[in-house]
Amino acid sequence: MLRISVVTIAVLLVAGPAALAQLPPQPPPVKNSITQGSDQERAACHPDVMRYCKQLVRDDGQDDVFAILGCLQSNRGKISNSCQQVLASHGQ
Description:
Helix content is 61%, strand content 0%.
């Protein structure tokens, strides 16, 4: 599959802007879900993140939000009710 992608890109670059205009529009970038949560929501889940997912929290603040979410989901039976409500309110 990677080979097809490289070939496709090469053909598009050779074909020029007309070929690029035919590509479908790209979706917007995924927003960091931590910044979407309110202070109250972050406070509800912070103790659980520190208790069960601390190894995923980085010192530089560039946390892998999806890894932390997966960790919280895998510990769903152990996390607080308030954090479970936050996850449920965000469709998790």
